Amino acid sequence: MSDLERSSVAKESRRSTPGRPWTPQEEPRQDALGRYLGAVAAAASARSAEYSEATPGTAKPEPPQAESARGSSEGEPAVLRVRDVMQVPAVAVPGDLQFVDVAHTLAREQVSAVPVVDADDHVIGVVSESDLLAKAAVMAEPRRHGAVGRLWQHRLYEKSHGDTAATLMTFPPVTVHPADRVADAAWTAAHARLKRLPVTDYHGRLVGVVTRRDLLRALIRDDAEIRAEVESLVGQHLLDPRAVEITVENGVVTMTGTLDKAVVAELFASVRGIDDVVGVVDDTEAV
Question: What is the CATH T-level fold of the domain 82-219, as seen in this structure?
Fold first, then answer.
């Protein structure tokens, strides 16, 4: 099955899936989500391979060294790190901040969660809207009857009696390091089902925050960036790059024009190897 046929089948299957009505914006959203999940799956696979190769008693690997945005050496692809996409400075609250003030902070900053830090900026937990909601729910209805009510009260007991960020927060916190790969951070966020991850140094001090949206944007390049890379490849393979017209839509590259048949196979293999290219449509004529 060709790339075009696979793309058409995938689109048709998504349209036929029961659920909310299909909209013009849904197809690009689904394509972006698929590409994001592909990157997360690749990161998870790499993690599994690393763990399977490790042997008992081996030393913990050294943290990744700093690299330039152009890669560790000429010719190597750049590896996006958390430091390249994280937000600084990060909003945080002290452990002794009162419940009402934590709620005001979330509302003012328009975020769903914030790290809780100690006097030395070490991240000790994360307090979220869910944590505050548990507190507010018990305040509004302190007593529930029956087995379900007793279970509900038992689970929320700690939350209901907390008045500060430190007593309401969820801990231990799930954090990432600035030198972590973006794909690994995306895997962590997906695995923990978190929208925001505190970024800490190797001493556990807060240095920034990264969101799922930041990771999504970093992992999935837009069509204009993909097209620029394809044009660069075409320029390397053809004496006259204008002989080929290139369009990119939702990661699918379409190439039309006239090509020397001696370079067709190598050129299309190179285009398929570009990150975030989900398919290549060959509308060229080989001569």
Answer: CBS-domain (3.10.580)
**Contact call for residues 282 and 258 (beta carbons, < 8 A):** no
Domain 223-286 in this protein, CATH class = alpha beta
Q: Amino acid letter at 245? A: E
Cα distances from 200 to residues 106, 115, 127, 205, 225, in angstroms, run 20, 11, 16, 5, 30
Q: Find the length of the chain.
A: 287
Each of the 287 residues of the chain gets a pLDDT tens digit; together they read: 444 444 454 445 444 444 444 445 555 555 666 666 666 666 666 666 665 555 555 444 444 444 444 444 444 446 789 999 999 999 999 999 999 999 999 999 999 999 999 999 999 999 998 888 877 776 776 565 555 455 455 555 556 667 899 988 988 999 999 999 998 998 899 888 899 999 999 999 999 999 988 888 787 777 888 888 888 888 888 777 788 888 888 788 998 888 877 888 888 888 888 877 878 888 888 77
Q: What are phi and psi of 48, to 5 degrees?
A: -60, -40
Distance CA 92, CA 88 (A): 11
Nearest Cα residue to 170 out of 120, 130, 208: 130
Angle at 262 between CA 258 and CA 266, to 5 degrees: 95
Largest Cα span, the chain: 81
Q: Where are the domains of the chain?
A: 3-15+22-53, 82-219, 223-286
CA dist 213 and 186 (Å) reads 10
Residues near 127 by beta carbon (within 8 Å), at least 6 away in sequence: 93, 102, 113, 114, 116, 165, 168, 169, 170
